[in-house]
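Bench log, entry 3. Co-assembly request; chain sequences pasted below exactly as received.
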Amino acid sequence: MSEQVLITLTVNGQERAVAVEPSATLLRVLRDELQLTGTKAGCEAGDCGSCTVIVDGEAVNSCLLLAVEADGAAITTIEGLATGGELHELQKAFVKLGALQCGYCTPGQLMAAKALIDHNPQPSRAEIRQALGGNLCRCGTYPRIIEAIEQRHTFADETLDTKPGPHDERDQKRDHAVVGQSVTRYDGPDKVTGRSLYTADIRLLDMVYGKILGSTVAHGTIKRIDTSAARALPGVLAVITGEDVPDIWYGVSPARYDERILATERVRYVGDEVAAVAAIDEETAEQAVALIEVQYEELPAVFDPESAMAPEAELIHPEDPRFAGNINTRVEWDFGDVEQGFAAADCIREQRFVGNRTYQSPIEPHAAIARWEHHGERLTVWSSSQAPHYKQHMLARVFELPMGNIRMIRPPVGGGFGAKCETTPLELCAVVLARQLGRPVMMKYSRREMVYHFRGRHKQYIDMKIGVKKDGTITAVQSRILLDGGAYTSFGIITVYYAGSMLPTLYKIPNYKYDGYRVYTNLPASGAMRGHGVPQPRWAMESLLDDLAEELGLDPIEIRLRNAMEPNTRTINDLDISSCEFKKTLERARDESGWLEKRGQLPPGKGIGVGCGGFVSGAGYPIYRSDFPHSNALIRVHEDGKAVSLHIATAEIGQGCDTVLPQIAAEELGIPYDWVWLAECDSVLAPTDLGSYASRVTLMGGNAVKMAAAAAKVQILKVAGRQLGCDPHGLTARDGRIFVAEHPELAIGWDEAARLAFSESGPVVGTGCYRPPPGLGGKYKGAAVGTSPAYSFATSVCEVAVDLETGAVKVERFSDFSDAGTVINPVTFHGQVEGGIIMGLGETLLEDTVHDDTGALVNPDLHGYLIPTISDAPEIESHAVESYEPHGPFGAKEIGEGCLPPILGAIANAIYDACGVRVTELPITPEKILRGLATQRQAGSKLSDDRP
Amino acid sequence: MACRNTTYHRPQSIAEACQIAGEYGIRGRFLAGGTELLIDLDSGRDRADQLISLRDVPDLCEIRIEAGELRIGALATLSAIATAPDVVRALPALREAILTMGGQQIRNRATIGGNFCRAVPCADTPPLCIAAGARLEIVGATGARTLPAADFFVGPRQTVLDRSEILTEIRIPVPPAHSGASYQRFSLRHGMAVAVAAVAAVLQLDGDEITSARVVLSAVAPVPLLVGECTDLLVGRKPVPDLFAEAGTIAAAAAQPITDLRGSAEFRRELLAVLTPRALNEAAARAKGEAA
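Structure output for the full assembly:
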């Protein structure tokens, strides 16, 4: 330790003297010494901007400023933005316009925006982009952030009540009071003020900090681990290795539990977790893991599925004979007769497409805290998790505890996109260390560690073949896909099935053959990422459809219309489509995006393309076999009748379920939205819910909430009926009033009736649960994956400009038409679409985790792994094409994941339209486009050479 | 941060700073904006345990035009330079180059001196300064010296400075009438991404004849690369697109690019063949007083 330095900071107007290590960044001093946790750590390398504060009037990254250097400075943090309990107009505008989702980057965005408007009260859009270019938002709220900065004055005098926001004329409205309204985000005010406590913001008495050591070799056996130097470091409290943790295999799918909490014998990728420490503070823990010495005997490693499947390849999981040839999961599906289908085709296209290993890159790094209670009989775990139930289930299994002895708390989650679904060594090691020490232990991944832990998108090697008749009707589709699974299964079994099962949901495919191989490699394990398994095959198919249309002289939208899925259809692979306005999304895209005027009419370098997609609204079956309903809710009407608590354990990860579910509750109960309190994110307060994955919450959680609300309402209506002297069945509840439907003047206040109900019989409680319809799907192996109560459909039109000299692509515009059933909240709906487009843009053009020939990642950061910035975001027009989904609450289905799969194909097809280059390997980089243009020139000159 | 176990010094004068730096030699680093240094220390790419802060050293932030030179103190932040009226007037291309760098937060802390002294091959301020004929003022424990910016860089992350020396000022001759400058940069993302290749060009015209020309490449060689062959080609000729395209071919051949995450060596050469004429065209348009 070096000598501490006493410095003085004026933080939010208050002078603070604090002794700091010279190496301490302002970020850590603000968070750890001054307890101002509104300033967030996202990358601690100046790449994400989530730690932005204002120092002497200028926005800076507090992670790149030593606190000693700020000595004497005036600092404004997010906690100082609101004055006298009144939110700043920027904060109000952010909440009202939906300029935040997960909220983790929001404090940084707001401070950057504040510094901008202090210097320049009327910034142009270009100036906004310039000033906020250093603030990454993975939820993709950029268009709304720009709008919020521009329109902030509009909100200056508003109180941040929960009344509906600006009405969006594009959205159809049904006769609902709360559903269909852009009510204020439930979590908005806390997220714009820095009051939301994410897991890493929690400070428990006596808490210590843990850190995990990752393997430095991609494949090897552990010969020796020397922890003595780490143990000797002052401040280190415990060091654990594979010997000190339960001797058990765990994972995601019971059929493939192939992970160890800490490696015991073998490491399978660079970063594979080997040992962990706990220390009095984070810095000491970081130092201590670096002092652990591990000796490995290296084994040959494989970094792509084809090499991994070669007969001579070293087995990555020799412990299980099922994984011969490093094949983790094999799928063989054959529906109809593809041979016959191709024989009947007039035109066949076949092509190999190669995807990319993209990482979800939530701005919040994973974090977990474990604390043992009641003398070690019970356990509380806080975790930044999308699916707390599965973690609770897995912790119970690993530590041999009844599930009821584990209390899972899910603080706000700073983005997940699939990265935070499964149990990680963070939770597991924190539990072990907390038990050893009898103190709460917090563990976090650094940006680098989270990328190494990965569980990002599987890179797929896709050989796809499509046959069509002259009129464009599909006769057969055949697809063979190798998925790079990385070192462990994670969600991969489901991924390899999804990669096959979802293709026939969008177009009517009469004959379909799918061969899927999920293959182990010595790379970080791939898992579930937004649109799970679907975006890459969808991109392949959308690309081939355009090629086929070109060959046949058909318009790309026309060929899609001729094959488009229709409502109430059973697909070739036995999936039941109920509501479906896919054709309408295509027609509206054709008629309203400027398609007809622009397609084929644009100058060289400009292009317009279409892509389609969709997703399940929740999986038909859970990850592990269980008879529990998938979603469960409880509604308690408060004593005075002016409030209700909604108890539900879904996971708000930015997608907006904390707003949408209270809307559903309020609608069904007949009360205003702002009467609803949420009691969620804690397994003691709310019954189990499977979590935020497979885009399931609006439909499944919403149904459970609606049922619970109906059950509570019946009790209130009974009392109201008696008071009004009429049959409760003839009563309507709406906006806090209960009245006779035929005679609206015969009414009683909802609260009055509720108060009477409580006074007479005590608590008014309603419960609800939802399970998907029984028997979904076919009888063949793997038929469960892809089943869902409902499916979303979307058509997206993209316009690009390609620089024909450098290959640079600028995505200029997107017009999206999505059928998500009834839209519960237009602002969150459009926010999801915009975010999906921006994330899809990143996946198509920018993103790939790259490894070197030792299996080490070249870009485990946000510096070399580029996600879209505010300047990359195109103009977006999002349109809801509403259907009414009979299985959904008020007709609603999903939007969060289905909005992404169309994007890759739309951009790829627009690029082809702009320059005639079809890049078949993601990401579509400028360099690949230039190669394509060069090949095109050669072919062209060859053509002219050949002319007589 | 891994720069823990560091001692922090806060000298009050240049002389004191040089003296401390001389004392610790290789163990010491001057700390200016810190936006690169702290990351390098954290990642272990650079190692030092004595941080010598320059924040209290006076008079190193000034930006002014004096005696025909645009003088920029080494501790001037990128934001300060980009918004300084003298810079906007005398060398707008420098402002444009700076606005391609980092995000606002980085530009608010990072200094031009730091951008020179960290000497990464893709640095964005040196190429234009070199092309504009800048000279660097350097003060050390044993005295002061001046040298052309073009002679400052030795290799990736290496400069001619000895451990006790501080770069104090960048002096750029105010471009004369009928001259123009441009900085053309290619990166993989629209903002917050380092250059894959970049070209700075400064041209002076006399009527329809190029009287001086300097082309400097960035991110395609161990150091910013002044391409003498381009000067040889251009001077005395008419500023026409064909000539500029030829200069692009020369620049592409002169570069010594590497293949990395951001692109192959071949791609970088192709980019130079495009960026060089673009830079020259814009510089020529500006020299002619055309809006560009």
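The CA atoms of residues 153 and 159 of chain B lie 4 Å apart. Chain B touches chain A through 43 residues (CB under 8 Å).
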